[in-house]
């Protein structure tokens, strides 16, 4: 008989991920702050529960997909939280992007109650979540990973076990460094090219053919050509991740000068009211600087 | 009858490029400061000339591949320079990576003598030069580009006309922004991952599968895994390019905050005696910062 799964956090990412678990045939218990997504999931065959505790009481494996570390701490360890409903043997998988240090702390507290935990943040965006094509970066015991693998396969395509609890989160943060900094580099390069009078389409084509080529350049080319920056992945969320990155760098003793600068540029984007745009919109700040606005 | 070509500057890049022109059947006149490469080329069928002026007197199309703007200015406009030997109708192609503003100035002076000029910097490194597989970014009149195209095709694979004189150079500088900044991002990300205890090979694999994927990551993976940084493209040369980039940014009124920071990190690498390493060695500086050395 299939394991019963729980899913808490039915936002832009969580909702399609949970739907893919239903499609794969898993009995599913869900909980979320917003009513709409819960109704959507119950219509599709899930059962609703009134609290994280109530979910934990009914399932073999519990997944969370929440905005940030405090949300996960509250849901996992707070009043009416997972810890209150968990029986020994529960498998808990947090797929949010949070502080890996927070993940390790939560895992330690849950382990004392016999709960095994994996951290498994994802990359691939809403599209990847809908298509079940996410890249899933997993930290935790190898044996626990093996148990969870079929569940991950219902949501993602590239599934990598990277090490002990927190390793998934650290890998995701490394990913977010590269993406934010590379988007900023693209912003500076294309702004220089624009002021030099170059045609943007030709420039992107020439850049994409050489060592400057990247998935960021490929994926964001339509934004750069139309000069519109609908998300995609929001500046606000990437700014949150940059905060987690700097916090981790401080905790581990890793100075991150370029990431720190890019964090400030993202902060400036937000003060200009562009936190809701796609993260590739960092180019608009550089364009402002070059055009005196 | 094939046009007679001239080639000045037979360094790491120029020498194999000139050889590919000989292989394509062009009569070739060469000049270089070092004797070895000149003898190598004459053995292969080229004629040697004693000065840039002497080359210019004997050829239909003259190519230069030199370290930096002052070298090109001297060879083009100095004593015994191209300008002294050039007849009206000469086509001059500078394939060096220099200031596009200097290119435009040189082009203007040569145009007064009836010489047409293209700037055509390349990307692809020594390997690309040997294999005739360079990416060539060309600026200048379209009609002049069309005349030069068969010559470019003997040296490169991706050949793009980007706009008027200087457009090739500005595109190359945009390319160099992205590469230097992305290598620094990789350095910060992988240093954080290392201090978090992650396995580097697994991390690179997970990063390469998502939005952080890039040609830099792919090409430099062997360096990151072996922790050796044999060039490739030297820190010293990329540092020179970063200087050209900042100079162009200043001239065009484009603030480049991230590039400026990366320029300082490359400067710090050079003070540590690592200017001769591959540019991916910027990670070693970040590793030093994190390990207190």
Write the layout of secondary structure elements.
2 copies of one chain form a homodimer.
Chain A: E1 5-8, H1 14-23, E2 28-31, H2 35-43, E3 47-48, H3 52-58, E4 61-64, H4 69-77, H5 82-85, E5 91-94, H6 100-111, E6 116-119, E7 122-123, H7 125-130, E8 134-139, H8 142-153, E9 156-163, H9 167-195, H10 200-208, H11 215-226, H12 235-252, H13 257-271, H14 282-291
Parallel strand pairs in A: 1-2, 1-4, 2-3, 4-5, 5-6, 8-9
Antiparallel strand pairs in A: 7-8
Helix pairs in contact in A: 4-6, 9-12, 9-13, 9-14, 10-11, 12-13
Q: Could you write a compact summary of the structure shown?
A:
The structure is a homodimer of 293-residue chains. The first copy, chain A, has helices spanning 14-23, 35-43, 52-58, 69-77, 82-85, 100-111, 125-130, 142-153, 167-195, 200-208, 215-226, 235-252, 257-271, 282-291; strands at residues 5-8, 28-31, 47-48, 61-64, 91-94, 116-119, 122-123, 134-139, 156-163.
